[in-house]
Task: structure prediction
Amino acid sequence: MSIRIDEKERLFSLETVHTLYQMKADENGVLLHTWYGLKTGTDMSYRIRTVNRGFSGNPYEMQTRFDYSLDTLPQEYSTDGVGDYRPSAVQVTLANGSRSADWRYAGYRLLKGKEKPQGLPGLRGNAETEGLEIKLEDRVSGLNAFLTYWLFEAQDVIVRSVRLENSGDEAIRIRKAASVCMDFPYGTKEVIHFHGRHAMERVAERAGIPQGGRLAFESRRGMSSHQSNPYIILCDPDTTERQGQCWGFMLMYSGNHLEEVSADQAGSVRVISGIHPEGFEWMLEPGKSFQTPEAILSFSAEGLNALSRNYHRVIREEVISPRWRDAKKPVLVNSWEATYFDFNAEKLLCLARSAKELGMEMLVLDDGWFGKRDDDSTSLGDWVCNEAKLGCSLKELSERIHAEGLKFGLWVEPEMISPDSDLYREHPDWALTEPERLPMISRRQLVLDMGREEIQDYLFGRISAILRDARVEYIKWDCNRSIANCWSLALPEDRQGEAAHRFMLGTYRLLERLTEAFPEVMIEGCSGGGGRFDAGMLYYCPQIWCSDNTDAIERLEIQRGTSYGYPVCTMGAHVSACPNHQTGRNVPLETRGIVAQAGTFGYELNPEKLTEAEKETVKKQIETFHRFETLIEGGDYYRLDESETDYTAWMFVSPKKDEALLSLVTTHVRANGMFPLVRLQGLDPDRIYRREDTGEELTGAALMQGGISFPQMTGDYPCEQVYLLAMKNE
Ligand code: GLA
Result:
């Protein structure tokens, strides 16, 4: 039994393979957070010390207990306005204008059989998945908070979410509803977050937490954003890739989000994560509920690589659709950097033919095939093939591509509308705009009000018609701007604070309908590259285009940052032409190949323009990828270069630890330089592994402790790849 409840002590212990998550309702019904860490087999509330810190008041019923304060106790889901001055998990306005919420324990329910949170993506689980629901009530307003916990034992993951229910007689405005709140009363902590910008997403940065201060990682762009991923890691200062305690907080949401990390007067650290409260307000009528997104939590005492592997496993096994989990994905060629908007059917067929000769398996027709679109100024929303441009119908083009032996994929950007489009001329009120204000324009496009059902229906109708007409195996679902002027014609004045979340719910609903109606079509997520790379989108899209930056050297940093939370099988990665279109840099084709192989391998170039020697290299690359595909997509991934600046190294180890693939790219070649030494991870210390390139035989222990050294490398960004095979046990 992984959920243990001590009724008398009102102690709740949730156990995964290695971890214990624990909370306890005290004598006042305050739900205290007592532990999240390795299993201890103990009621961890013994660690809670109370002290009168001064200016930290006491609940009314604790008149003389000056040491008992909501401001100093570790809270499971913090209150607001009643004496906890740290960041609150919830903020409300009652009908009379008062703004407090005072949570007290009101019972629990054991759950079995995972359900998706209403209207939102969620971890899949199955009929056996166990969960716990704890009811907290605010006795004055009748607002209840149902805290839900689902256990994913094998992956050491706990999934939390909250449902707020109005059991009173008057409407309550929800101004903030976090998915998770967690207090860490002891020890200095650091936070790792993933910041960025367009074409440089998810750069990992580690920061201290200022005493008495608060760090905020956030997006108010309507999308989870290039700028701040909804995933943070809290860790001890001495935690490294290989050792130490770390806690992951990943929000399964693709819209506005806020992760707050604060340290209070006594150094106690609080983490809060959820929908961004700024601009958000939800009118909760009597009898109604509001559901927060799920937060995926994990703990490891064995360093950051181990924490990442928990996330990789849970995303592969419980987020991605089972249909695509183990499916081999075709090596694709995408038309974007090959042709941009300049193509017709004949040109695409030449591309397809030359791609096929090299071993590529699918042609993805990117932006520009619909409406009157020859640049980015027009036609979003007009999802009808531009036959005049192509010289044939989409159906015919797809048939001809299939006749060349390739699958066919298509780009769409459903949530957007160009002011210069038939759709806008017909429905100008479908775009998110504010009364009497000129809207913010970005990439010359506006955003559809996705919360409205008629708009979802229109898009479902158009996209289904295309998928029924032409044979399309793959959709690239783009989203190329941030939201502004978030005002919906469909909502009354006092509910406009719901528009951004309703946008996300509408997008999820459309994705849900399309994936149900066309389960055989794989959707790749995209938002100007990786502007919406999150677990919410991964529920519908098993892979996401990682970045519009295809420069292999820049990709090392982007893919490395992404790997802290997301498995390589979700990271869209392509070999592109040199000089690179974003940086102008030249990187050897071999290095570009190795980098793209640490993702969903494909190409983003015109194969006809390659030299004969390059074509041979590409053929070999595709063969190598297929040889190692199972190891790469299904193996354990390790980052290896934590203290180095001159190279980046990573490796894959098969689940049985009988084979491994090590890749290394030198990012800075130095004259008379050092020999790179890479200490491997994840091998069986007692087995002997043979290096395929040199024939050397070494124990796993030697490879992990002593490592592999490489000769000094010269030239531009040289790379190495070493395959290791475990020898049969005698
Ligand atoms: C975005 C995508 C690119 C490409 C263009 C097309 O920027 O990330 O890969 O599809 O849109 O307009």
Q: What stands out?
A: The first strand starts at residue 3 and ends at 6.
